[in-house]
């Protein structure tokens, strides 16, 4: 069956986009309240109030909420349960500049953008009337709106479901995924209370063309994984008038960036698909004021996507790059110093620097061996108290503060690189079709695509890894529990500010697919969602997939 849902999904999307739900603001809760109100007014949830929740996130630095709604099918006695998911938060709007007040206005924004000379393609899309503009329209309130429509539909037609359907609208996807992580508790509780068997999760996050002439629409099985390998570097301070008398940690960090940034050798591959190589997200030193002394320490971190590599694999690869970077800097410094001595008439002697690289696990264990429980207790208490005093501190800043504090305990003060992980772990999920649940999901989605393709004027294509970070990473796990020990042992914030919910995820552990919004320019002022495909085609692919999975 093909649902005539365009106008209703468009209306819901417009209402959601109008709510400024920027991550880490009260707008997240306001948007959750709007979604909750929509469900609450449906007759089904007036009769089944226990199937609708607006839940505050746990262990969060601010107050914000998820909305979880469930429809129980009446077609049969199956306990199979399918998850729909999508995030309600958006990124910020500083990029809108003088038109910030219209960032969430799908009606007025296109006219303002039309006058900004943003290029022929943007103007053409505005004039076409095929796109809805506005922060969050593409990423990804249109996806949430589609799920809201489907929950309403199935609440009116539970006889079409032999099983159960749960829709999760989660907050905080754009930062540290407190929403998805907190929702795991409810999903586990419902699993135990109602004896559910979770079979799959359908996300509705956004996709875009891969190039200017790409007319395909994309659906993705599985999802990319993301790690944030981070580097703390100490040098040897010196006065700028005696520059060769020290070792600048910024130089080492710069060489690490050269080794890491967009290096194709660090791409990962699985099922014929390749990840984007790592890219630098931060590099800085610790100097707060201007002085003519070189910095004591510096740090950097890099986005690292994976399809098949585990945290252990990534740590091994980036350690190799760190060693290579340190070696290169020492060689460069000696070459430079030798040339300087030649032109200055000085006697050259080899500089004293030696390559020295640790993982956080290695560094921590060395200090624990030297200082025993005194060090272990100190670092534990330092991290705990830091989180209590500054709970809103960014996880990456928090992590480097711990490494910097541990450095004070070292006996050998010679320059060093310490490698660690400092961000929420987004697990890769590979869907191969080898397991029954995976095969059922793949077959159901492809059959639904074949049906809906007749109603779409563009090709609908499947790929095997969603290429962006998403909350799907918290619905399953392809890495072994053993391989995740490397993550734990190399994450300074583990146990104080962050713990990856491995047990909770394994209790859900379903294959995932992204049947999501389509448009252009996510996270840009020209963000826009293609209405016909997203409001109608996507909703129908999702609808038919649900019917096939819960037949």
TrEMBL record:
Lineage: Bacteria, Bacillati, Bacillota, Tissierellia, Tissierellales
Cofactor(s) needed by this chain: Zn(2+)
Transmembrane segments: none
Alphabetically ordered keywords of this record: Hydrolase, Metal-binding, Metalloprotease, Protease
Protein name as it appears in the record: M20/M25/M40 family metallo-hydrolase
Keyword Protein biosynthesis: no
């Amino acid at each position: 069956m093909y649902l005539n849902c365009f106008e209703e999904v468009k209306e819901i999307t417009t209402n959601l986009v109008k709510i400024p739900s920027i991550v880490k603001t009260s707008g997240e809760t306001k948007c959750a309240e709007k979604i909750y109100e929509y469900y609450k007014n449906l007759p089904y949830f007036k009769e089944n109030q226990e199937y609708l929740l607006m839940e505050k996130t746990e262990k969060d630095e601010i107050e914000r909420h998820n909305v979880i709604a469930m429809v129980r099918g009446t077609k049969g006695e199956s306990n199979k349960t399918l998850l729909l998911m999508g995030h309600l938060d958006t990124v910020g709007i500083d990029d809108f500049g003088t038109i910030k007040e219209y960032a969430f206005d799908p009606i007025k924004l296109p006219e303002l953008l039309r006058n900004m000379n943003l290029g022929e393609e943007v103007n053409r899309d505005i004039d076409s009337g095929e796109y809805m503009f506005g922060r969050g329209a593409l990423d990804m309130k249109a996806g949430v709106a589609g799920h809201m429509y489907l929950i309403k539909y199935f609440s009116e037609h539970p006889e079409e479901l032999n099983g159960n359907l749960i829709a999760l609208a989660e907050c905080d996807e754009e930062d540290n995924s407190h929403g998805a992580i907190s929702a795991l508790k409810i999903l586990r509780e419902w699993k135990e209370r109602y004896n559910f068997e979770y079979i799959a999760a359908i996300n509705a996050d956004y996709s875009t063309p891969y190039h200017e002439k790409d007319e395909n629409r994309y659906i993705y099985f599985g999802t990319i994984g993301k790690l944030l390998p981070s580097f703390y570097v100490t040098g040897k301070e010196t006065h700028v008038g005696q520059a060769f008398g020290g070792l600048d940690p910024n130089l080492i960090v710069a060489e690490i960036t050269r080794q890491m940034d967009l290096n194709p050798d660090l791409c990962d591959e699985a099922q014929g698909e390749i990840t984007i190589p790592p890219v630098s997200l931060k590099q800085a030193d610790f100097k707060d004021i201007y002085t003519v002394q070189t910095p004591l320490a510096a740090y950097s971190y890099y986005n690292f996507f994976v399809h098949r590599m585990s945290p252990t694999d990534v740590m091994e690869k980036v350690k190799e790059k760190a060693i290579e970077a340190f070696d290169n800097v020492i060689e460069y410094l000696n070459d430079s110093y030798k040339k300087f001595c030649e032109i200055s008439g000085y006697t050259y002697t080899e500089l004293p620097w030696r390559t020295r690289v640790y993982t956080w696990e290695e560094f921590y264990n060395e200090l624990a061996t030297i200082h025993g429980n005194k060090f272990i207790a100190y670092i534990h208490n330092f991290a705990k108290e830091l989180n209590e005093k500054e709970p809103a501190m960014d996880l990456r800043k928090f992590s480097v503060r711990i490494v910097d504090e541990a450095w004070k305990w070292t006996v050998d003060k010679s320059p060093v690189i310490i490698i660690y992980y400092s961000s929420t772990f987004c697990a890769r999920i590979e869907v191969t079709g080898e397991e029954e649940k995976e095969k059922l999901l793949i077959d159901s989605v492809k059959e639904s695509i074949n049906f809906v393709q007749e109603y779409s004027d563009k090709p609908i294509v499947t790929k095997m890894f969603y290429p962006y970070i998403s909350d799907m990473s918290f619905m399953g796990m392809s890495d072994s529990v053993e391989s995740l020990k490397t993550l734990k042992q190399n994450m300074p914030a583990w146990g104080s500010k962050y713990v990856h919910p491995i047990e909770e995820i394994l209790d859900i552990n379903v294959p995932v697919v992204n049947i999501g919004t389509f448009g252009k320019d996510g996270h840009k002022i020209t963000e826009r969602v293609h209405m016909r495909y997203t409001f109608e085609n996507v909703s129908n692919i999702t609808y038919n997939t649900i019917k096939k999975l819960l037949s």
